[in-house]
Write a structure and sequence with these properties.
The chain has about 150 residues and is an alpha+beta fold. The protein is about 50% helix and about 10% strand.
């Protein structure tokens, strides 16, 4: 399948799945209805994940309207409570790492960014967050990247 065929396939297969862009706080609220999520502090190793995330956000938003730096970012970490509701994510996490680490979600509401140390959950969070309609209307690369999340 060539590139254009794949784009056509993605639109046909997943267009009905597209969600309008929501705030990261709305995404957290939606996930709190599905799994148990609580605001938390970070361990030393999780703090390293946060620092890497902050640097990524600063680099990604360097040309945007908001000029982020480490001093003006407001990260809020959440823990996914380990129970039967979250077993799916913890089982996948256990396959990917040798540690028995907890799953965290980190939001930054000023940039409307959300991430997790569990790749599968991160994808689900991005799908739930949605995409700006301008990307959909213009069929931007971000639009096709979003559709590819469903395909993976």
């Amino acid at each position: 399948m060539d590139h254009n065929e794949y784009k056509t396939y993605l639109k046909h297969q997943y267009f009905h799945e597209i969600r309008s862009l929501q705030s990261v706080n709305d995404v957290i609220s939606a996930f709190q209805k599905k799994i148990d999520i609580v605001e938390t502090g970070l361990s030393e190793s999780e703090a390293i994940f946060l620092k890497m995330t902050a640097l990524n956000y600063i680099n990604a938003h360097n040309n945007g309207l908001i000029k982020p730096n480490l001093d003006n970012l407001n990260f809020v970490p959440y823990e996914i409570v380990r129970n039967e509701k979250s077993d799916h994510y913890y089982n996948l996490m256990r396959e990917a790492t040798s540690d028995d680490e907890r799953i965290i979600v980190i939001i930054e509401s000023q940039l409307n960014e959300i991430t997790s140390n569990c790749q599968e959950l991160k994808v689900d969070l991005i799908i739930e967050r949605g995409i700006d309609t301008s990307h959909v209307n213009q069929e931007t690369p971000e639009f096709f990247t979003y559709l590819m999340l469903f395909d993976n």
